Description:
Blueprint: E1 2-6, H1 14-29, E2 34-39, E3 55-59, H2 67-76, E4 83-86, E5 99-103, H3 107-110, H4 118-134, E6 137-140, H5 143-152, E7 160-162, E8 185-189, H6 198-208, E9 215-219, H7 229-237, E10 243-247, H8 251-260, E11 263-266, H9 275-282, E12 287-290, H10 295-299, E13 304-306, H11 311-323, H12 325-339, H13 344-360
Parallel strand pairs: 1-2, 1-4, 2-3, 4-5, 5-6, 6-7, 8-9, 8-11, 9-10, 11-12, 12-13
Helix pairs in contact: 1-13, 6-11, 9-12
Amino acid sequence: MKITIDVRMLHSxxxxxxxxxxxxxxxxxxxxxxxxxxxxPQDGKDPSWKGLSNYRWVDCGSKIYSLGQQWELPRKxxxxxxxxxxxxxxxxxxxxxxxxxxxxxxxxxxxxQFAGGPHKRFYARWMFNQVxxxxxxxxxxxxxxxxxxxxxxxxxxxxxxVIPNGVDESWFKIKQGKNPHSGPYFLYVGNIKPHKNLxxxxxxFEQIENQVPHDLVLVGQREGFIRGDxxxxxxxxxxxxxxxxxxxxxxxxxxxxFSHAECLVFPSLYEGFGLPxxxxxxxxxxxxxSSAASIPEVCGKAALYFDPAKSRDIGEKMLRLxxxxxxxxxxIAKGKSRAKVFSWDRCAGHTSELIDRALAE
Length: 361
């Protein structure tokens, strides 16, 4: 079979991790199939494809969410394609063949106050309806995302299958090196967007900063977003040297930040899955997490939960993880076990089965 995969978001923060971990595994599992990868030519040198030969790169430079992609993609997808897999909801609507789509979340419909204007909400709603109409199968990454799809789109229920994300084995096998920060710290990992709820995290840190020696370290992209990033950076500056931004960092460096942190604080208001808590758990880092959206589904009983709307609750849970050593030890043990539930190999196996189902439609 000939399968075309849109990998243009290979280096995006969330979907990029999904593509980097899952697509090569699928290609190895289905080594009798041939794959066309749509993306930028320089991405063909990415280590994700090392050791693979059953693919060819197809130069496709149009941007996600652009009108240009609707013209370019149908012309670039090879004519002998048996299935197109789009690992995000922004599909080429004029493509006429079999289609498999991965939906990570329905943020633009669920949280319109953060979506960047009515035109983006309209586009997202129209595109989700196109997915419901045109896709042979729809892969969602959590039960929460499935429920959100049924609540907000309400079509295509029989096409949907839940296949959770995974954690790579390397996250369980790190060798702790030198502390990447100069002292004790709380850690946040994620982009700087309004729904990530960093204002409440800052409020919480402000309430406890005089009670602990810890800094607050934020790892993730902080440029290029339409809303929220400037306000967050201005607020961070009010803490002087107690709040640190690292920007995007390599995975190996992130593992060291996890392994040395007092805890990961994950205050998000909306997540389709949320990988950082699981990666933290795999590294032996206890997690204090929001009780919103998919986060309890993913973290189970291995996190200390707080109400993300209440900064006092966030701060109290951060303090507990500083002061209660038995709690930290218990959460570290539970976290290791919980993270092992989620495997990219298992995800790849189920996704391969879904590809078979799509091909059979």
